[in-house]
Structure to design on (209 residues):
């Protein structure tokens, strides 16, 4: 679920993604920074004596509450009914709680990031499919755009979406131009064009599906 990668230096000076949370490291010599990375998250360390951030983890899912001590961390995954996890990476992470154990018996939707060509470039969204989805079958589609417009949809579990998919709908959450998580230029792409441009991005996604 996580992997180490060489992250682009967008913290601190060249920051081109939204910072979602900050955590002082134990010796006070720097901070661990959670940044939005498309529909997921990355974690980087900013040493107060260094000029470039140190990439720590790129998550393949979105995360919520996080507490770090040394190289270990406690965090919640938000791509499913939340539980707390502990570990230094996905390979050794273990679940600490069973707050939503009952969800294991429910038919929850699957979620995946999808991309399509918009009028001015690539656009990403989150597609939720009903349990037992059959690619050869046609499904009604609901489009659930985020507000803001400066914001974005993550690969997050959403109880409302789970209700809609239980009724047989496929649900698309589009991250149209103006969304965060895809760089400053994309976020500013709706300036002077709050309506028509983002709407075209959304409808291009509907057509692609």
């Amino acid at each position: 679920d996580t992997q180490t990668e060489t992250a682009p230096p967008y913290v601190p000076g060249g920051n081109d993604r939204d910072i979602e949370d900050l955590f002082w490291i134990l010796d006070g010599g720097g901070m661990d920074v959670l940044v939005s990375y498309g529909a997921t998250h990355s974690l980087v360390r900013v040493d107060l004596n260094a000029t470039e951030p140190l990439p720590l983890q790129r998550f393949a899912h979105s995360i919520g509450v996080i507490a770090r001590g040394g190289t270990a961390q406690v965090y919640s995954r938000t791509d499913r009914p939340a539980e707390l996890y502990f570990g230094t990476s996905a390979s050794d992470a273990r679940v600490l709680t069973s707050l939503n154990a009952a969800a294991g018996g429910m038919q929850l939707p699957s979620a995946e990031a999808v991309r399509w060509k918009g009028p001015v470039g690539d656009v990403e969204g989150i597609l939720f499919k009903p349990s037992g989805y059959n690619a050869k079958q046609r499904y009604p589609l609901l489009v659930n755009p985020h507000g803001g417009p400066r914001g974005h949809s993550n690969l997050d579990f959403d109880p409302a979406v789970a209700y809609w998919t239980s009724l047989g709908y496929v649900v698309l959450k589009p991250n149209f131009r103006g969304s965060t998580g895809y760089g400053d230029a994309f976020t500013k792409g709706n300036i002077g064009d709050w309506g028509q441009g983002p709407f075209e991005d959304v409808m291009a996604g509907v057509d692609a599906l």
Notes: DSSP finds three helices and 13 strands in the chain. Residues 1-12 have pLDDT under 50 and may be disordered. The first helix runs from residue 159 to 166. The first strand starts at residue 2 and ends at 3.
